[in-house]
Amino acid sequence: MTEQQESQVKPQPTPVVNGGKSRSGTLLGGVAILLALGLTGSLYLHVHKSAVAQQGELDQLKLQLAGAIAKLDQSNSKESEQLAAFGKQQQLLQDELKDLQNRVLDLNDKRPNDWMLAEAEYLVRMAGRKLWLEHDLISAITLLGNADERIKALNDPSLMPIRKALAADIAQLKGMPRIDREGLTLKLAALSDQIELLPLSTVNMPEAKIEPDQAVSTNPDEWQSNLKKNWLKFTENFITIRRRDGGVEALLSPQQEIFLRENLKTKLLQAQFAVYREQQALYDDSLEKAQRWLTQYFDTDNSATHYMQTELDKLKGEQIQFDYPDRFKTQAMLEEVLNERLQRILASN
Predict the structure, then answer these.
(1) N or C: which end of the chain has fewer CB within 10 A?
(2) Burial of 136 by CB count in 10 Å (0-12 exposed, 13-18 middle, 19+ buried)?
(3) Measured at the alpha carbon of residue 262, what is the angle toward residues 258 and 264, in degrees to the nearest 5?
(4) Measured distance CA(315)–CA(317) in Å, rounded
(5) CA angle in degrees (0–180, nearest 5) for 195-200-201
(6) Is 115 a residue whose pLDDT tops 50?
(7) For 321, how many CA atoms within 13 A lie in the half-sphere containing its CB?
(8) Triad 242, 244, 248: Cα angle to 5°
């Protein structure tokens, strides 16, 4: 190739246009790169700090979760222990109950009648308490009858002597007189309410005796009689004496009248207490004094006073104290039979 040809082929340099603008563009690009790097660094730092904080919170949450899990495991462990202990205790109770049931069944198989005999003996003891402590005759008879029903239901011929003794005890109580305590106390209370209506006795002066005629006789043989008559006429102007027959009671003052009525009420109240305590002597004494005061201080001709005297006469005839049996024959016999059977059960075990 010739030089002319090489000159034609060699590229020509491009002419530079606006050289200042090219330099400023390069500077702006550098600044932009620096800003991008700064923003990138700041973003990185912010993201790093956030990640560190989140990691700390996460670690804390992990610790709390681990603690909660540990507590839950501990609680579950305690509950498991409690459930195990409860189950063991329940099992022991079930074993004891089963053993007790077996013992009861065994005892029933040995002596099925002992329970009803013990119940009959208890009823007899309760009848004794009702009779001796409360003097309740009706309740005592009822309890003895219930005891006889228990023994009858056993259908045991060996217990016939006990039933015979029970029949004797019941017949003895039924033969005793019964006292209507409520009726007697109600009657006494009603009479006590009538005391304020009773009139007191008043002073009645008896009629004065009229002296016979004191005229002097003309018969000389009656000189002594004439002398007496003349003497009476002579002394008549000095002292006048009129004879009256009959006792005169002094009138009571208002205060004495109040005391009298209250004392009469007290006597009737004492009679009521004596009925419940079965104190015959106190009962009779209270009614006797009440009657004596009625006759002495109140108008006996009045219908109210007469009615109270009549009612007190009826009440005085009531018997309120009785001699109860000290012990039932049946009680000793039942105790003996129960002790004998108990000894047999202990010997068989």
Answers:
(1) N
(2) middle
(3) 120
(4) 5
(5) 145
(6) yes
(7) 12
(8) 130
Q: What is the DSSP letter of 18?
A: -
pLDDT in tens, 153-186: 988 888 999 999 999 999 999 998 888 888 999 9
Q: How many whole angstroms separate alpha carbon 136 and alpha carbon 130?
A: 5
Locate 271 and state its tokens.
């009679």
Query: How far is 227 from 214, CA to CA, in rounded Å?
Result: 11
CB atoms within 10 A of CB 183: 11
Vertex 332, ends 330 and 336: CA angle to 5°? 115
Separation CA 298–CA 24 (nearest Å): 154
- Indicate the pTM of the whole model: 0.48
Which residue type does 149 have? E
What tokens does 158 get?
Answer: 């060996």
Residue 245 has what DSSP assignment?
-
> Lowest-confidence range among 128-142, 171-185, 196-210, 307-321?
196-210
Residue 13, pLDDT > 50, answer: no
Output the six-digit token pair for 192.
């006590």
CB count within 10 Å of CB 330 equals: 28
* Tens digit of each residue's pLDDT (9 = 90 or more) over 297-344: 999 899 999 999 999 999 998 888 888 888 898 988 998 888 888 787
Nearest to 290 by CA among 331, 262, 317: 262
d(Cα 208, Cα 146) in Å, to the nearest integer? 77
Q: Are 242 and 208 in contact (CB under 8 A)?
A: yes
Cβ within 8 Å of residue 345, ≥6 positions away: 107, 110, 111, 114
**HSE on the CB side for 273, CA within 13 Å?**
9
3-state secondary structure of 209: coil
Q: At what angle do helices 160-174 and 137-154 cross, to 10 degrees?
A: 160
Angle between helices 254-277 and 280-297 (to 10 degrees): 160
Identity of residue 196 = E
**Rounded Cα–Cα distance for residues 121 and 114 (Å):** 10
In the structure encoding, which two tokens stand for residue 335, read together?
């105790």
